[in-house]
Design goal:
Layout: E1 4-12, E2 16-21, E3 24-30, E4 43-53, E5 56-62, H1 65-75, H2 82-91, H3 94-102, H4 106-109, H5 117-127, H6 150-162, H7 167-178, H8 185-196
Parallel strand pairs: 3-5
Antiparallel strand pairs: 1-2, 1-4, 2-3, 4-5
Helix pairs in contact: 1-2, 6-7, 6-8, 7-8
Keywords: ATP-binding, Cytoplasm, DNA damage, DNA recombination, DNA repair, DNA-binding, Helicase, Hydrolase, Nucleotide-binding
Region (Domain II): 64-141
Subcellular location: Cytoplasm
Length: 198
């Protein structure tokens, strides 16, 4: 029904953005509200999915069309509802998720909250070969994360906090930091700053 909504971002909460269009406020539950937090007062464009159920009509919002498309695909998987699909889109990256599906990487898929082995297998069964995205390069996935230096990640997170970023902002990008190819503290700080400024 709504492809996207473009208007003035007037308010942010932990889970949603409020967009004003001609005096009407649209409450949009976002995959990652922190993508929009620094744009309060600005005109923004949010791609939307309108979800209808018996007790509520809900708008879900995404920064890119690719995130919206992935949400809809994941939502069609048996056993995954809007909350689970939104969590996957908000905490992951489209390319990395697609690669994990194509490579049947259950370990990466089960890193998302609420996704066990059974659900991961169902996602692979339902989505493999059916996602309309192309992975242009191989990305380091979850199997290799354990070899990374956890102290470097902790130090990078503390450095980002000292620069004024909130815990919830840093937590939102933590999965991407764990998957970074370089795991020195300096490299993780640079990666974190790049993600936080997107």
């Amino acid at each position: 029904m709504f492809d996207y909504i473009k208007g003035t971002l007037v308010e942010m909460t932990d889970i949603s953005a409020v967009i004003d269009i001609n005096g009407i406020g649209y409450d949009i539950i976002c995959a990652n509200p922190f993508d929009f937090e620094r744009h309060v007062g600005d005109v923004v464009k949010i791609y939307t999915h309108f979800h209808v159920r018996e007790d509520a009509h809900i708008l879900y919002g995404f920064k890119t069309r690719e995130e919206k498309t992935l949400f809809r695909k994941v939502l069609n998987v048996s056993g995954i509802g809007p909350k689970g699909a939104l969590s996957i889109v908000g905490q992951g990256e489209v390319d990395i998720f697609v690669q994990a599906i194509e490579e049947e990487n259950e370990k990466y898929l089960t890193s998302f909250p609420g996704v066990g082995k059974k659900t991961a297998r169902q996602m692979i069964l339902d989505l493999k070969g059916k996602l309309p995205f192309i992975v242009t390069e191989k990305i380091q996935l979850a199997e290799e994360v354990e070899s990374n230096d956890p102290s470097a990640l902790a130090e990078a997170k503390e450095a980002l906090k000292s620069l004024g970023y909130k815990d919830r902002e840093i937590k939102a990008i933590e999965p991407q930091l764990k998957q970074a190819k370089e795991q020195t503290t300096d490299a993780l700080i640079r990666k974190g700053l790049m993600l936080l400024m997107q």
